[in-house]
Each structure stands twice: as structure tokens, then as C-alpha cells.
Amino acid sequence: MLIRKPSSIPSSAITPKDQYVNRRRFLRGALTGAAAAGAAALGAERLAEVLSPRIRAFAGTRLQTVKSPLTTTGEQLASFEDITHYNNFYEFGVQKSDPAQNAGGLPTRPWTVRVEGLVKKPKTFDIEALLKLRPLEDRVYRHRCVEAWSMVIPWVGYSLSEFLKQCDPLSSAKYVQFLSYYDKHVEKWASETTINWPYSEGLRMDEAMNPLTLLTFGLYGEVLPNQDGAPVRIVVPWKYGFKSAKSIVAVRFLDKEPPTTWNDQAPNEYGFYSNVNPSVDHPRWSQKTERRIGLPFWQQRRTTLMFNGYGQEVASLYKGMDLRKNF
Amino acid sequence: MKHSTVVFLKVLTWLVCLGPVAWLVWGAVTNTLGPDPTATITFTTGLTTLRLLTVILAITPIRRLIPKLGWLIRFRRLLGLFAFFYASLHLMTWVALYAGFDLNAMASDVLKRRFITVGMAAWLLMLPLAATSTNWAIRKLGGKRWNRLHKLVYAAAVCGVIHYWWQVKTGVLTPMTITIVVAVLLLARPVLALAQRRRARPVAA
Q1: So what's the ipTM on this one?
Q2: What are phi and psi of A250, to 5 degrees?
Q3: Is the separation of the CB atoms in A83 and A8 below 8 Å?
Q4: CA quadruple A171, A173, A174, A178: dihedral positive or negative?
Q5: A278 CB near a chain B CB, below 8 Å?
Q6: What is the C-alpha to C-alpha distance for residues A282 and A234, in angstroms, rounded to an integer?
């Protein structure tokens, strides 16, 4: 059930849809004009792309959804404004407000997801087919960033396991890797960092098959805005946010741990598992508490829960493991 | 320079320097500090401190290069005290909003987290400078000793920049601009001194 707290989203804070669609239309017009002016300088292929851009405003389209028993109850939802204007999506800039400004060019149609690695036969799934694979569920999850802030987000999607079953992985597949979209022309802000793109994340097979792990297409009952990882992303609610790869274009089955982006950047700070764990500090800050987004500064601080409060569903995955070592 | 001009420029400096804290107070009252107000307050106070430190470090090289602007020195104490004011607000943000006034949490932060250790060092380096900013202190210490003590501002600025780098994620280059500015301003000192010595040396016949 979606309970929108009316006071949390002032209507003035939301850009009306016709306005932002207009802005995109204007941008497209401007691009076309610029292309005409500089046609000589542009290659024919790029010119064709500019004249008939793949950029389309799908965000905001209503999705048909059903209720889910796996939804989290009793939490106040973050506002749509905050969920869509406070993002870590470094391909579109390193400031939290950058992705909302810069992700408009992410071409979310046509979109396919490659399935490769240890599978019976590599396949490619079209986004439209993925949307129809299973009924889309409303799933409210707590979202805990490794930077010690948190939100409660009403996602839309279905269990990733439903999709993975369609991929026919071999029994030798022990891990699954997710690769995000990367095009340095579209995501020119990616060079603000020294990260080796594309963004890569991964899960152990049993983590990926856990019903809580969500293949996500929307939030607040609507198609995902680009800055939140459109058109399809992973959400793993008991792990730090960076484990939930955005805008995925490939799913790869492997027999060993895949390389993952933040673990490559700083292995001492971001482990492969990265389960939310208040008793294992990040080297640079404590993980005992977190700041809830959207509250006044004197109300933000709250206690962080083991596995982000999803211990009942996932603790058994790590039985016998030293979670200090496997952080 | 005319007295009235100095007064006017001092008032202007006060207004500009109070800008960031006024913006924060206004934002806190109207709840418009963005999705993560705690982070906004921390970042704004920290960045303002670093910016003021760069302005302070720029005064001496500018005076050397353009002797006409010698009067800039009259603004350095005010700017320095504002830098210390913002550094203290930044420190209080950590004490109140991160550590929640918990002494154990603070002690473990300072011991375990190098970005907090170096940030704390920067504030401690600025503390004696703020404490000896009065005319009385200058007289008491004597100009030479006072000058030597206030060279600590270089160390404070360097610690501040390191604090910034160690706080951001590996691979994020946001602190680059301010690092380059501070580096240029610090290097300008020996370079200008060398140039001056060259000029002073008599040309061999």
C-alpha cells in the first residue's frame, strides 16, 4: 500500500510533467538546430542519431502493479523529489544533484539485457519482454547507503530469481555479475573520477536468488526516472546501496567472484559482500548510525539495523561466515 | 587609504563572510537545506573554511606582486578569525550531529579515522592563531615570534586539504581545484622570495 504523506512533497517542488517533457522537446530541437549548423563537422552516423534521437521521456509513465507480501511496512516514505534528486550515479556526475540534471540523455529505448557466461545458451532479453515476464509488485524497502544515509523507497519490480530462472544457468554458476550501461559520449561526467567503467556489481547465486532481491523497473508506481537507474536495475535491500547496480545491460553467470567497481577502487573500504552491518565500521566513519534523508538535521540520526532490518529473511545466507572478514 | 573606505570595505567583508552561515541558518529554519541537511551543513562550513584560508594565503603574494595593494593586510586578521569561526562550526557539526556529544565516539573517531585526525589537527593548529590575534598578544609575543607562530597557517591549510582528500571516495577528484590553488599560493612564497633576491643582487661588472 502506498501511503503518500501529503506534506512531505510540496507541489511546488515537483516539475509538472508537461514542463519537463517540453524541456526535452526544446533540447531536442536545439540539438537538431546545432546539428544542422555544424553538419559539416559531424560524421553521418552521429548526425543521423542527433536528428532522430533515441532519447524519449518514458519516466513518469504509470505502471500496473500488484501488492506484495515482501513489502516493508511502518516506515515513512522518502519523497519522490528526494529519491529523484539525491542520487549516486557517478556516470552522470559525482554530486548528488548531478544525475537528475544530466541523466536525461540516457537512451532507455530500445534497451536489451544480455545474458552470458555459464548458461546453456547466451540470450538477449528486450526490456518490453522483461516488463511482462512477471506481474510488477509494489515493494517498499529501506535503502542504506554506505555513506551512512538512508531512505525508504517504494520500488516496483519482481524478484530477480524469476528472471534468473529464465536464463538457464549451468550448475557450475556460483556468482552472477551485473554490468551497467556505459557510453562516454552520453555519460561524459564519468571522467570526473578514476573509475574503470562500466560499473560492475555482483552477488553470490543464493543472494541473487533470495526473493528480496528485486529486479526493479519503477518507483512510486511509475517508470524509473533515468537518474534512478532506468530502465531496469537491481535492488538488494540488505546491502549497501552501491551493490544495487543501475541501468543494467548484461547479466553474467560465473564460477568465481566477479570484479566489482567499488571493491576495485578501495578493497579495504568496500567488500564484495557489503551487507549493512552496524558492527563493522567503514574505515572512515562509523556504520552504527545513519542519517534519514528528508528530515530536519536534528531528527536525521537513527540506529542502523543489522542487514538493514532484513535479518529474518537473509541472515541464514551467511551462517558460519565471519562477517568482519567478509565485510 | 581613506578611513571611510576602510570602514566600508570592512563592513563588506563582514557581510560576505557571514553569508554562508546566514544561508545555513535560513535553510535550517525553512527546512530548505536539501535532502540531507546534516551533510549540507558539514560541507558548507568545511568548504568555507578552506576558501577563507586560500584568500588569506593569497594576500602576501598579491602584496609582493602589486605593492599598491599593500592595504590588503588590514583585512587578514578579520578573515583569519572568520576562517577559525567556520572551522569551529565544522567541528561542532561533527561533535553534535555525527558523534551526538558522545565522548567515546569522538575519541574513537579521532584515533581510528585519519581524515578526522588530520581535520582535528587543522583546527588545533588554528586555535593558537585565533587566540593570539589581538594587538596585545602581538606586543606581548613580539613581532618576530608572533610572525613565526603564525606560519602555522600553512600547516593548517595543508591539513585542511588532506582532510578533504581523505574524506571523499577514492577516485573522486572534487578537491583538485582547491588543492591546486593552495599549492600555487604556497609555492608562490619561495618563488617570489627567490625572484626578489635575484633583483637585489648587484649585477657583476
Answers
A1: 0.78
A2: -150, 145
A3: no
A4: negative
A5: no
A6: 23
Radius of gyration of chain A (CA): 20
- Closest listed residue to residue A68, CA positions, set A206, A216, A204: A216
- DSSP annotation of A89 reads -
Q: Which of A25-39, A81-95, B129-143 has the lowest mean pLDDT?
A: A25-39
Task: With beta carbons less than 8 A apart as the criterion, state whether B159 and B122 touch.
Answer: yes
Residue B34 backbone zone (phi > 0: left; psi -120 to 50: alpha; other: beta): left
- Contact list, A266 vs chain B (CB under 8 Å): 169-171
pLDDT tens-digit series, residues A109-153: 999 999 999 999 999 999 999 999 999 999 999 999 999 999 999
What is the pTM assigned to this prediction? 0.80
- Contact: A291, B38; criterion CB under 8 Å: yes
Residue contact A96–B28, C-beta within 8 A: no
Which alpha helices (DSSP H) does chain B contain, by range? 3-30, 37-65, 76-93, 103-112, 114-131, 135-141, 143-150, 152-167, 176-200
Angle (deg, nearest 10), helices B37-65 and B3-30: 160
Whose grid coordinates read 513518469? A60
Beta-bridge mates of residue A193? B172
**Domain boundaries of chain B, sorted by first residue:** 3-189
Looking at residue A40, what is its pLDDT?
43
Measured between beta carbons, which residues in chain B are less than 8 angstroms from residue A195? Answer: 171
- The answer to whether residues A200 and A258 touch, using CB atoms and an 8 Å cutoff, is yes
Give the DSSP letter of residue A175.
E
Q: Does A86 touch chain B (CB under 8 A)?
A: yes
- Dist. CA A204–CA A176, nearest whole Å: 6
| Beta bridge mates, A239 | A275
Q: What is the pLDDT averaged over residues A142-171?
A: 97
The answer, yes or no, to whether residue A47 has pLDDT greater than 70, is: no
Partner residues linked to A248 by β-bridges: A180
Alpha helices (H) in B113-151, listed in sequence order = 114-131, 135-141, 143-150
| A307 backbone φψ class: left, alpha, beta (φ>0; ψ -120 to 50) | left
Of residues B109, B105, B156, B94, the one with CA closest to residue B130 = B156
In tens, the pLDDT along B59-97 reads 999 999 999 999 999 999 999 999 999 999 999 999 999
Non-local (6+) Cβ contacts of B163 within 8 A are B46, B115, B118, B119, B122
Cβ-nearest to A192 among B31, B109, B173 = B173
The mean pLDDT of A219-244, rounded to a whole number, is: 97
Helical spans, DSSP H, in chain A: 17-37, 44-51, 80-85, 98-102, 127-133, 160-166, 205-209, 261-265, 311-314
Q: Are A112 and A249 in contact (CB under 8 A)?
A: yes
Report how far residue A195's alpha carbon sits from residue A265's, in angstroms, rounded to the nearest whole number.
7
End-to-end CA distance of chain A: 34
Among candidate residues B83, B23, B17, B21, the one with its CA nearest the CA of residue B50: B83
B115, B163 Cβ separation under 8 angstroms: yes
Closest alpha carbon to A102 in A199, A188, A200: A188
> Using an 8 Å Cβ cutoff, are A79 and A294 in contact?
yes
